From TrEMBL:
SUPFAM superfamilies: Tricorn protease N-terminal domain. This is Tol-Pal system protein TolB. It comes from Campylobacter taeniopygiae. Residues 1-17 form the signal peptide. The keyword Signal applies.
Amino acid sequence: MKKIFTIFLLFLGVLWAEDPTITVVNSGVVLPKIIVKDNSNISDIALKRSFYNIIVNDLKVSSNFDVVSDAAEKSNYVFEYTLSQNGNSLNLNVKIKAGGIEKSNQTYTLNSIEQYPFLAHKSIKASVSALGLPPVEWMDHKILIARNSSSKRSQIIMADYTLTYQKVLIDGGLNLFPKWGNKEQTIFYYTAYDNNMPTLYRYNLNSNKAYKILSSGGMVVASDVSSDGNKLLITMAPKDQPDIYLYDLNSKKLTQLTNYSGIDVNGNFIGSNDDKMVFVSDRLGYPNIFLQNLDSSSGAEQAVFHGKNNSAVSTYKDFLVYSSREANQYGVFNIYLTSINGNDVRQLTANGKNLFPRFSSDGGSIVFIKYLGAQSALGVIRVNANKTFYFPLKLGKIQSIDW
């Protein structure tokens, strides 16, 4: 049991939170100025104010604009929108002007008013694309969070990246380690405990039904899904021995990939053909990242040569991002970016406790957990823009996230 507890420490992150706000660090080059004009006339003042704040924050997070608030200040762009409500539906018209010339005019409809943050995110994503600026395709993607609801009980919730929208998807019992199962974000995997037996489930958001995949003593966690959605990398410990397995969803075939006497967890596909994986192992006497071909049960190679406590990893194509404990700095963990094709390592955070990084779908952003003393926040790193944004959380105790 001591080994299993140690394994769970490699997976878990704990958060506390406040109302969504935003902070920017590492500001970059001079950006075109944009001013936001709200022409909405809706009776719900709280909704009107929140929607405006999300629009402004999204423009900042896109890292394509310098948002100005003074109408008298000269701006390159004007972002003008009208939000209207019809029962439980919202309609949004967005016009973007440059020098008095209309560059974009788009209208959106949302039939679920409580999901209004996604309406704002979608409009910014489309507006950025219409202007031919670096895309933010991830912006309206949903985040899965496992959080404690009471003693030995946890929920799976779905949220937007600002954590303004939150919806409980799975409740009752102990539900952990959610992982998106497809690009459309209509399927996800999670671990639940059936009569104290860890069991992996596949949940379909369209049908709102969960389907059992497999069970295992000790632990069972789906840590990654192949790009085609047909294969899973699973950490299992049927004999108190955590190893990584490949599970084919079509054939139901389970193949053991590692066979080490210590701890092997958190497998992630890597490479253009998903023919390799990186994973966390203590085979050097401390947690570190290793690389292995999927067609080989031996020959794991050390993938990261920086740091001596690298306990979380995420991948995008040939790149990997990981959290690392800093030497001689008690409690300091930073996020680093590297590639399996080179030795360059890029530090993405500067100080404090930064854990559990996850790549966005386009690889251009990374979400992670930032601990701020007794508080914590969701961090979003815009890699190419060299900017980081923080959103304090108000969610209780969090075990894990997926983007």
